[in-house]
Amino acid sequence: MAIEQDVLVVGGGLAGITAAISAAESGAHVRLVSYKQPTLRHASGLIDVLGYTPDGEGPIVDPFDAVEDLPEGHPYERVGPAAIEAGLDLFDDIAGDTYEGNHTDRNALVPTHGGAVKPTARYPDSTAAGLASDGRDALLVGFERLVGFDAPLAAKHLAAAGAPFDARGVTVEFPVELSADPKVTRFAHLLDQDKPIGGGTRGVRRALAELVNGRLDGEARVGFPAVLGDDHPREVRTDLAEHIGADVFEVPMGPPSLPGIRLEDRLYEALDEAGVSIETGNPVVGFEADGDRVESVVVDRTGNDVPYAAEEYVLATGGLVGKGIDSDREGVEEPVFDCHVAQPSDRYDWFEDEAFGDHRFARFGVDPDRELRPMDAGGTPEFSNLRAAGSVLGNYDFAAEKSGSGVSLATGFHAGRLAGEGAT
Amino acid sequence: MSDAESPPDDDVPSVPDDEIPDGDEFEPVQVFPDNELDLREGADDCYKCSTCDTNCPVAEVDDDFPGPKFQGPEQWRLKQKDDHDVDDSIMDCSNCMRCDNACPSDVPLSQMHNEARGEYVDQQMDKLSVEYWRNRVLANYRISAWFASKVPRLANAVMGNSLVRQVGEKVFGVTAEREFPEFAQQTFRQWWAERGGPQVRSEDKRVAYFHGCYANYNTPEVAKAMVRVFEHFGYQIAVPDQGCSGTPMYANGMLDDARRDAKLNIKEFSELVEEGYDVVCSCTSCSMSLRQEYPELFSFEGTAEVSASTYEAVEYLRIHEDLNDAISAASVDGPDLAYHAPCHARNQGLDRQAVELFRDLDGVGIEDVGESCSGISGTYGWKAEKYDKSMAIGEEMFEHMDEAEGETGMTECPTCAMQMEHGSGYEIRHPLELLEDALVAA
């Protein structure tokens, strides 16, 4: 007996969550199955739409102007600007006042941990005081033992990139005694809890603020690595700002990333609110089809193969990092439905010699029609009731374009809505 | 008289010479010394994202614990040269296995931890130390429970004595903070024999029940609920001889003990699987062990078959029966419940099952108390030196239990139940007991 639902979404990252909520909004009973924790936890938490053209031009001021010129087959070209707007609207509803940037179509410029500036459409409110377009001088504060953020280096990089303000970087010892290599969540939870330190009444936040005060030289804003709280980020920031007497912002970091973890928490709450059933921990390993329809997928429940049947399916298993696209020396494949993945037959044509060259592998993925159904090599949908969303899609290089989140939202919304409508 | 009531077997085989390969489709990964362990691929899959470290409940409360990334792939690499011992912090890992679920790159972290812990205990731990024997006794809980079950009133009186507990802590390193679980006056197996075994016969609906130690000796009401619910759905139940699932043994690095019991379990259950039975567990750590750890660690004949036929009890009914419809049509008379998902249930994808199911049951409210670990992790929280850590990990769950509407707890795992009761004073129920109330008792 199969476990039944109207729509089954495979994958628990940004695209899968968006697809599940979008399908649920059409009245369908939706189940989301996810194997491991999503790579959202690796993500900066920035919601980019398009930062650079596929030819590397940019940073782009207004991504919606640039979308029209994208090549045929690009996910945005497939779904059109309306789906991009709708995906962002869905995100804005969920994120509420924890994100900013929806007042304009134009990209914001957010400094990240290496001192690079990333063009992005939405950004966590914790980064808002740090925008590179802001002319106020900034002090960047790093912590000893937190190796992912070298504040003096980041400040120099910002200056070299031509930021219209002076940035200075200092490194301080976190005011709580820590091991040589503390987890990023340790810093966040110490700031959340704000317990008194050193037997006195001074909490962690105040002690940190006092350390920074001694290093401040008139800067109007202070940037910290993005570890300012897990459960109570706003209170942490507000307290620090008050004690320091300057605006406080976070600089997004590499994995594991607190802004990504906070976003993941909020998105899973939204799934619950939308009535989506969720199962995590077991992989989808195969499927049964009848002609051009997927009848069920097979979930490997710790050794038992259990069929899950739905009217419509959304594949949102991620790209090469999330393992929605897999490769070995013989070739590149989409492992669940074995959808066609276009690839040069010679493995040496998968990449360029330059590290930041235009690698073919970066654009590996399934090739969808305008309803996001993956197509076979001849251009026919592989299945009538299977759609794909997010980085399992090919024909775009999200890392170079800075389009990963936007593509997940737009294609997740589009695939989810079509699946929901098709199933109800 | 069954094996479960016969004196425990002291013969501890140290060489797995009776393990034989099991057909073409099954390639066990050997994780024992002398068998050319190869977890190379798993170590290489780690791309150092540290997601596991941010999910580790021990690292959360103990800044000095290096975390699963070190215990797994990094230590594995260090060990490829002969000049490195296993770091003794491996004994601080509680075997919650959350790192397995966290890893976006499929690194077999808990398998690496089991292997490192086994090697540490085998080669580096003093076999004459109190710690070794304390751990050995805790890991072999079934043996103590077997003796206690012969004289349950006396055992309860002795173990409930606070002086005995103080001495236990001072001399043996078992915390005096916890009250020992009571032993039932009649074990589940005695009850099962007394009622004359299965009351329902079926050719095509057959399950073999792995009750484990706790439901036999301490909470037979859970095992009886399993029997009544499955018989309600028309299943013929078998209760074969069985030992411990092995979970407390892996967690203490006692892999030889685990192998001894696994051999019996696999023999008994694989015979039934061959006859068309599926294996059903009421404890999520038992089902975890049979499903995941058995094929990782053992290659007795029938290991793969038992693993692939094992389910948690409610999961089995959800797959094979229209349990949602049955629950929607039923009703019970309270009380509201504060549900905690055990880590090992989480790893089997079962963490939302009870809440999703009972949400549709009239007469009872159920609320998830959050995704944190209860902190007890089987024998871990019973160790005097781990007690404070265990309670610190549990703090978040206690807070959420306090905030929840319900003042009765619910969980599938017997030691999570102990911890919930210890931290909140609530009575703790098992989902099977509520199913019995809703479907059978009505």
Overview of this protein structure:
The complex is a heterodimer of chains A (424) and B (442). In chain A, α1 (14-24) runs parallel beside α8 and α3 (75-95) crosses α10 (404-423). The two termini of chain A are 22 Å apart. Helix content of chain A is 28%, strand content 19%. In chain A, strands 12-3-2-16-19 form a five-stranded parallel sheet, with helices on one face. A four-stranded mixed sheet of chain A has the order 1-15-14-13, with no helix packed on it. In chain A, strands 9-8-10-11 form a four-stranded parallel sheet. By secondary structure, chain A is of the alpha/beta class. The relative contact order of chain A is 0.20. Chain A folds into two domains: 3-100 and 261-423, 3-Layer(bba) Sandwich (FAD/NAD(P)-binding domain); 113-251, Rossmann fold (3-Layer(aba) Sandwich), CATH 3.40.50. Chain A has helices spanning 14-24, 63-67, 75-95, 151-160, 184-193, 204-213, 233-244, 258-273, 398-401, 404-423; strands spanning 3-4, 7-10, 30-34, 99-100, 108-111, 117-120, 123-124, 138-143, 167-172, 221-225, 247-251, 277-280, 284-290, 293-301, 304-309, 312-315, 326-327, 332-333, 386-388. In chain B, α23 links the parallel β7 and β8. With 442 residues, chain B is mostly helical. In chain B, α22 crosses α23 (414-424). A four-stranded parallel sheet of chain B has the order 2-1-3-4, with helices on both faces. Chain B has a four-stranded parallel sheet with strand order 6-5-7-8. Chain B folds into four domains: 40-124, Fumarate Reductase Iron-sulfur Protein, Chain B, domain 2; 130-172, no CATH class; 185-319; 326-440, Rossmann fold, CATH 3.40.50. Residues 1-15 and 32-36 of chain B have low confidence and may be disordered. In chain B, 50% of the residues lie in helices and 6% in strands.
